[in-house]
Amino acid sequence: MPEFWSAYLPYPLNLVAFGALAAGLVFGFIGLAAFLGIWAERKVSARMQDRLGPTRVGPFGLLQSLADGIKLIVKEDVAPAGADRFLFKLAPYLAFCASFCGFLALPFGLGLVAQELNVAVFFVLAVLSSEVFGIVLAGYASASKWSLFGGVREAAQVVSYEVPRAMCVVAPVCVAGTLNLNTIGAQQTGWFWTWNVFHDPFTFVAFFIFFITATASCKRAPFDLAEAESELVAGFHTEYSGIRWSYFFLAEYGSMFAASGLAALLFLGGWHTGLLPFEPAAEFGFWPGSVVNLAAFVGKCSALVLVMMWMRWSLPRLRIDQVMMTCLKYFLPISCVLLVGVCLWQLMVPAVVARAVSYALAFGSAGLMLIVFASLFRSQGTAFAPPGQLPGAWDGQPNVGLVKK
Question: Its topology with respect to the membrane (predicted)?
């Protein structure tokens, strides 16, 4: 891409133009992901609670997020009287910049990356973890004990969950032999059983541990102890309003997608569909193949983000002592075992056995997913409950209000 700008601009303006274009595309993608993510979360939560969600603003309520954004922009930007105004205003931007920088080394396809790095895995983990600085500053600068409690909780939670998350990341890195995300994604070209998640039982379990710890690092329920509305009013962002408040949620949704993208690249084949035995960008040409790669990568990330939303509206919030105990007592030793197991598997297990186990994990998982998908059509659902009867767990019990007199 810098070579393209070299035909129109001299050095170093060509690099500046390339950087501005890459940053603009990344910012636009984060904004669009947050725009659709907020709408999707409202729809998901409404479906799970037998409600409708946004319906009136735009088709299917799609413009509700835009309306809310306009509302937040025009709201008054206030700060508490005792707050450190400089840090109070700086904190939301620090949180968002951490989420933004994670996308710079995240490849969306073969060569579709803002900046290819040989240590991209380490870079993404480091910058995503730095979001905690903005949250701690927000809690400290707000001159509110509730905000301070939320910031301290987030610091303890993120620092603790970084350890098992990083160890689960090292498992596929040991399999790939590189920290370059572009190389890791390219190594998983082909059918879905070549994905790292099916390489061995240890990487299979490591994917789930990584996803749970990444969810905790993104402050998503049931690990959202930094906000904890039932205990801390709204946690670290209690004193924020208007556009600065929205930056925290823009950072949260951006981090959700970045963490999901890292999971897809390390474990789920990256930008490959798993249904083609070749690299689309090499077989179809760069641009047509890149469209296929981009669609597959965004689809996988969106599916993982939806799982995070599903978890939020399904599970109750944990206590802070339960969150810390889960990490230090369970996830940390499990991740250590997984890391040692991956190394021993590659050194000691014969290739024939490893291939057979890979096939068993891949086709077993695919069969389980098909069974779960088929079960969705097994029941007629609540709309077809007989008159005078209640559906679901109350099947067979009469509803007095529906019985005809």
Answer: Multi-pass membrane protein
The distance from CA 217 to its chain's CA centroid, rounded to whole angstroms, is 10
Is the pLDDT score of 381 beyond 60?
no
Q: Is the pTM here over 0.85, yes or no? A: yes
CA dist 236 → 33, 51, 64, 68, 216 (Å) = 23, 30, 25, 21, 16
Q: Which of 224, 298, 306, 248 is nearest to 92 (CA)?
A: 248
Read off the DSSP letter of residue 275.
Answer: B
For residue 63, what are the contacts with CB-CB under 8 A and spacing of at least 6?
57
388: left (phi over 0), alpha (psi -120 to 50) or beta: left
Cis upstream peptide for 12 (omega within 30°): yes
The average pLDDT across 96-124 equals 89
Query: Can you give the pLDDT at residue 259?
Result: 93
Q: Which residue has better confidence, 59 or 383? A: 59
Q: How many CB atoms lie within 10 A of CB 116?
A: 14
- For 217, the token pair is 């690092």
Q: Where are the beta strands (DSSP E) in 238-336?
A: none
Look up residue 389 and give its two tokens.
């009867």
DSSP code, position 83: S
Place of tokens 């096939």: 359
